[in-house]
Design a protein that fits this description.
Layout lengths: L13 E3 L2 E2 H11 L4 E6 L3 H10 L5 E6 L8 H7 L8 E4 L3 E3 L1 H9 L4 E5 L10 E5 L2 E6 L6 E10 L1 H16 L7 H7 L7 E4 L5 E3 L3 H16 L1 E6 L6 H11 L3 E7 L1 H7 L7 H9 L4 E7 L5 H7 L3 E5 L8 H14 L2 E5 L5 H14 L2 H5 L1 H9 L2 E5 L3 H9 L1 E4 L2 E4 L2 E4 L1 H7 L10 H14 L4 E4 L6 H14 L3 E5 L1 E2 L14 E2 L2 H14 L6 E6 L8 H13 L4 E4 L7 H13 L5 E3 L9 H7 L3 E4 L2 H20 L12 H6 L5
Parallel strand pairs: 3-4, 7-11, 13-14, 13-16, 14-15, 16-17, 18-21, 18-29, 21-22, 22-23, 23-26, 26-27, 27-28, 28-29
Antiparallel strand pairs: 1-2, 5-10, 6-12, 7-10, 8-9, 8-10, 19-20, 24-25
Helix pairs in contact: 1-8, 3-5, 5-6, 16-18, 19-20, 20-21, 21-22
The chain binds sulfopyruvate and magnesium ion (MG).
Length: 655
């Protein structure tokens, strides 16, 4: 190496990209989560120590000088350092350069291992390993039979390492300290249980001369030219993310994707930090070449656009709901010759704690209130499911269905007057008073984070409604829906079978105006519900009211119908949208239930409320259980239809 090592040890030789052999090794092991390094030194030890410390890596160094470096081999250096090596270790020579995938495999090995290559030709003068049944028996330059090219990169389990280290000590005590440490290993005759880890053509090479140096720098430059794509949905960056970013950077030029707000909200929870800000967060991480937004959970679109050489991901997606996404990534990569690199996934307990804290934040009134509007902006159409107590709230909060690599969950909760009254065994005639309704809201809010749409019935007297608005706002409710009826309200699903009176446009508009005036926050919404179709007053009446109520300040319009056929709702949406493209439209498709959400969205609706299905699912189930017990005079027969309480308890969050 001559001139290259005149003023510093060989490991400080530059290998391009602003790195030396050593800085690259240390950066990579720090990225793999290793926090302690024992470095044996010889000449230029002070230069080396200052250099390592100047790298600013999160590593605690122990430097051990081999005072007899000129006359001994590294078997003796290890022996000098043995008191610091009583652990699982990663052992490597200081002149070794390897690519990230090699380190990933070594770190991922459950057993002690050494890197070998079945594809690299046997070198004349360098290390070779004699391998039998996957176990390394001998390492040295002199073996050619049953041998594979090998590199001095080992991962050693403590008990295996102990055997080797004791042998090293035995050799040195006997004055046999001018040989390789591997000579001591060979004396163990395979007893150290080192598996041969075949890294094939991956870069794993020592630098002995200028030729090696040229080859390695060229290989690294080519790696650097590769583009690597890594997608994140997180809104907090912690150490684990940085470690993955560093690993991905070692594979090439790194492009980071941030998952769109819509995709995050659909599969996880509402993002606390919007995609635009998450983008800036990642742009400010050193070495990230570009940050793009990934619109969907599926990678197809972004991969077809960017065609990265490598997609990197944690190996947690090999099973579970992300598997179809992974399968698609593999197929798309195969279509243009890209490669998938997976890192062992480790979940950080600290991250869980942060997530729990985030959940608690999301439940706070000020953060919850505005989220309905933001979700509408992000998704175009949001879905709300009825909840009438803490338990149904938890079902709405936590039920997720994974389908075709996507995830679906409800965006919001509907606090139905019908279900709240029914749960109390009372008719839906505004008999359950506001204090009791607020109590239900509070029960639900205490255990959930999703935005709440409150069924405000008629809103009562205008003088009372203004108080209701303020209370709901204060609690963190996002929207109240009031219907244009007056007098004794009955549930709309009875239609004209019961006596119901529609309020006048003037009165109801006045109620809306008063509510809007009473409101203190910008985010709270008042939605006007039009009963013209329910009461068979015709489309013209419905539309006239919709425009009048919007003019009075309503933030949204709900149009209701109890017909099975969705035709009149389609017609209303079309006619309303012809004149008003912006005001959100809310639907409760209990009767007209054949239309899918995608179609409602395409037609211009913004909120779909599933108003009573959970309650209707409960009643037949509990009645059947009661009847079965009565019929059999015992509970055994009904057991098969019941959920064990252990499972029910799992739905309930622990603080
Ligand atoms: C409710 O769920 O209480 C409603 C919707 O108001 S509906 O029952 O369809 O009228
Ligand atoms: Mg109602």
């Amino acid at each position: 190496m001559g001139a290259l090592t005149k003023e510093h040890p060989k490991c400080m030789t530059e290998i391009g990209g602003g790195e030396t052999i050593l800085s690259r090794q240390l950066r990579m092991i720090a990225g793999a989560g290793i926090r302690e390094a024992v470095i044996t030194t010889g000449y230029y030890d002070s230069v080396l120590m200052a250099y390592c410390r100047g790298l600013g890596l999160p590593i605690e160094y122990t430097f051990v000088k081999n005072e007899r470096y000129a006359e001994t081999n590294y078997i003796y250096s290890i022996d000098c350092a043995r008191e610091y090596l009583d652990d699982d270790i990663l052992l490597m020579h200081g002149d070794l350069v390897f690519e990230q995938a090699v380190l990933d495999r070594v770190m991922g090995s459950a057993e002690s291992c050494m890197t070998v290559s079945s594809t690299v030709p046997l070198p004349e003068k360098d290390f070779k390993a004699v391998v039998r049944d996957g176990t390394v028996y001998r390492v040295g330059i002199e073996f050619f039979e049953e041998a594979m090219a090998a590199q001095a990169l080992y991962r050693m389990r403590r008990e295996d390492w102990r055997k080797w280290l004791d042998k090293i000590h035995e050799f040195c005590e006997a004055g046999n300290d001018r040989v390789y440490a591997e000579n001591a290993l060979n004396a163990l005759d395979g007893a150290a249980g080192i598996r041969a880890l075949d890294v094939k053509d991956l870069l794993c090479s020592e630098i002995d001369n200028a030729e090696d140096l040229a080859m390695v720098t060229d290989r690294l430059r080519k790696t650097g030219e590769k583009t690597v794509y890594l997608c994140f949905s997180t809104d907090i960056i912690h150490g684990g993310h940085i470690a993955i970013i560093k690993r991905a950077q070692a594979l090439g030029k790194l492009i980071i994707g941030v998952l769109s707000d819509e995709a995050v909200a659909s599969y996880k929870r509402f993002p606390l930090v919007p995609a635009s800000e998450r983008k800036i967060m990642f742009e400010n991480i050193a070495g990230v070449s570009r940050v793009v937004e990934q619109k969907t959970l599926s990678y197809r679109e972004i991969l077809e656009e960017l065609k990265p050489d490598i997609v990197a991901h944690g190996d947690d997606w090999c099973t579970g709901f992300q598997k179809p996404i992974r399968d698609e990534v593999i197929a798309v990569l195969a279509s243009y010759g890209g490669e998938l690199v997976e890192f062992p996934y480790s979940s950080d307990p600290k991250y869980k704690e942060i997530q729990n804290r985030q959940r608690a934040d999301l439940a706070m009134p000020d953060l919850r209130r505005g989220r309905l509007r933001r979700l509408m902006n992000i998704k175009g159409l949001v879905t709300a499911m009825e909840a009438h107590d803490g338990l149904t709230g938890l079902i709405v909060e936590n039920t997720v269905v994974h389908q075709d690599g996507g995830a679906h969950q409800f965006d919001a909760m509907w606090l139905s007057s019908l279900c709240d009254s029914t749960a109390k065994g009372k008719p839906d005639i505004e008999l359950v008073d506001m204090t009791s309704r607020f109590r239900t809201i509070d029960d639900i809010m205490e255990v959930t984070t999703k935005p709440i749409i409150f069924d405000g019935d008629t809103g009562g007297l205008t003088e009372h409604f203004v108080y209701t608005v303020r209370s709901l706002e204060r609690m963190g409710v996002s929207m109240v829906i009031i219907e244009d009826k007056t007098g004794l309200k009955k549930n709309s699903l009875f239609g004209t079978e019961v006596q119901q009176t529609q309020d006048s446009i003037e009165n109801f508009s006045e109620k809306i105006r008063a509510g809007k005036k009473a409101q203190r926050t910008k985010e709270f919404m008042i939605c006007a519900r039009i009963e013209s179709l329910i009461l068979e007053k015709g489309m013209e009446d419905a539309l006239e009211r919709a425009f009048a109520f919007t003019a009075a300040g309503a933030d949204a319009i709900m149009i209701h119908s109890r017909k099975k056929d969705p035709a009149e709702i389609f017609e209303f949406i079309e006619k309303f949208r012809a004149k008003d493209a912006a005001t959100p439209l809310v639907l409760v498709p209990t009767s007209f239930n054949s239309v899918r959400e995608e179609e409602w969205k395409a037609r211009g609706a913004n909120i779909v409320i599933y108003a009573n299905q959970l309650m209707r699912a409960t009643v037949p189930a509990i009645r059947k259980a009661a009847e079965t017990i009565l019929e059999n005079h015992r509970a055994e027969e009904c057991d098969a239809t019941l959920m064990p309480f252990k499972e029910i308890i799992r739905l309930i969050p622990e603080e």
